[in-house]
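Note to self: user wants both folds in one dump. Writing first protein now.
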Amino acid sequence: MAINLIKGQKIDLLKHEPGLTNVLVGLGWSINDSGHGEDYDLDASAFLLGNSGRVSSDYDLVFFNNLGHPSGSVRSMGDNRTGGSEGDDEQIKVDLLKVPANIAKIVFTVTIYEARKRRQNFGKVSNAY
């Protein structure tokens, strides 16, 4: 089952698919010539939030510099710095059966690495999904 979301869209996966145990979040984009000679480096991240709506520690943020949650429930499969390859350029895998009881929700984000410094923005990203 594939679900495509648009910017800001929310979905309760367990309500949508009650027997769901594993989730794969894929991110892809085309290489974009920024005019400044640098590729666009998009990064997928996952925030594991408690009932307060906040992470309880740095370990609750999974991204290119922290590839996995200590529980083994959320894992980043690495950082692609250029995009444009076949299939997903970055992936985050979630094992819902391993998510700790104190985690109320998992929020996924996409950012551009050093966007301000490189003068890059999402308006110039091609074919992102």
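First done. Writing the second protein, which came from a different request thread.
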Amino acid sequence: LKSLRARTRLLSPISLSQLGDQHDRTLLCAVVMLTSIKPVVTKKGDRMAILQIEDLTGQTEAVVFPKAYERIGTSLVADAQMVVWGKVDRRDDQLQLIVEDAEPIETVQLVMVELDPQQAATLDYQHRLKSILQEQLGEKDKAKIPVLASVKLGDRSQLVRFGRQFWVQNSQETVEMLKSASFSAYTRPISQILS
């Protein structure tokens, strides 16, 4: 996980040692390693799992309920490096993470928008960009794809991360909308950022 630290900062994850500081039911993101997976079958016969996850700061228990397990169960593999999205849950003084989504770190995509300094400073450009991203937000809890701007300054670029309120649900659709509004945009795996 150490080697991923700089790249995954772009996802603005929290570290597991900060879980206790978060409000209940806050949607958050963490970059973790799955240390163990315990499959469970509910009374109704649905499959779910209890995970042990850890990062460089600590470890905690995480629960994947049946609905989420249906979607992500196949990607839950011991010792996998994952990005997990979930909510903090406190029960009887026990702190755990309710996992709503998870993805292997190497498949996490970002939306990149290239801007020159003039575009970045122009209110009209900012407003158009903001409108498209807000349109692509959809249901806030499901928007988990970060958006970055790459602002060209001479022969180098400065990466600017948009706030959580501008994350999107569908990277391909967002890129198509941005392109049709004359923005230079593309998707990029997080593993290729800063490498």
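Dump finished. Worth passing along: The CA atoms of residues 171 and 186 lie 8 Å apart.
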